[in-house]
Amino acid sequence: MVLCCRMQEIRALACVLAAATLVLTVVATATSTWRVTEETFFRESFGIFISCRFQGYYRSCKLLDIGTDEGWLHAVRFLMVFSIFTAFVALVLGILGFICISHKINQPKVAGALMILTGLLIMIAAALYTGFTRGTPGPGGVVLYWGYSYIIAWVCMVLALISGLLFFLVYDLPKDMWDPYEGSIYM
Predict the structure, then answer these.
(1) Residue 156 — pLDDT band, cuts 50, 70, 90?
(2) pLDDT in tens, 30-50
(3) In this structure, what are the phi and psi dihedrals at residue 110, rounded to the nearest 5 degrees?
(4) DSSP 32-72
């Protein structure tokens, strides 16, 4: 009975981590602070889709030109958007597996595999971004530092891998561990 309750908690934790991964991946992809530069009178931030410049109380943002961007940035964009899609599908399958466990359809195993894939996609995207922007000077030779979107992307990678492993851990257990009342007179 105690093992069954622990399994419910671990399944719920896997779903919560998958939801957190999805939300944070959307935040990391949509925001404009992967790299930031600050000087005395202005601050400029660069994302994968948008860049913003702040001068005092004035803020101006512009979409990065997709036609003239470098190939590595297209790869980072694709990987981050695809990771949002895989995280969403994994979350839906994980919730379905949490609500109705069907051993004929391995929704939890697929959810676990998709969450691990999500983590790997985010890791590759963040590593590409790191490799191509590390040491690149900002406008006017100003040093750039990593912003919160970049850090959130790395956190998402860890959350996705943990969630995927939890899905595999919990749903790979034998069927008789799921329901302590199965086969009893209480059915």
Answers:
(1) very high
(2) 998 888 887 767 788 888 888
(3) -65, -40
(4) S-SEEEE-SSEEEEE-SSEEEEEETTEEEEEE--TTTS-HH
> Residue 95, class by beta-carbon neighbours within 10 Å (0-12 exposed, 13-18 middle, 19+ buried)?
middle
- If you ran DSSP here, which 8-state letter would residue 121 be given? H
Which whole-number Å values give the CA distances from 151 to 4, 24, 41, 44, 140, in the listed order? 36, 10, 25, 17, 25
Amino acid at 109: K
**CA 26 from centre of chain:** 8
Cβ neighbourhood burial of 34 (10 Å; 0-12, 13-18, 19+): buried
What is the predicted pLDDT for the residue at 44? 83
Give the strands of the sheet with 58-63, arranged side by side. 58-63, 50-55, 42-46, 35-38, 145-146
Whether the CA torsion 128, 130, 134, 140 is positive or negative: it is positive
Instruction: Answer yes or no: are the C-beta atoms of 158 and 119 closer than 8 Å.
Output: yes
What span, in angstroms and rounded, lies between the C-alpha atoms of 45 and 86? 28
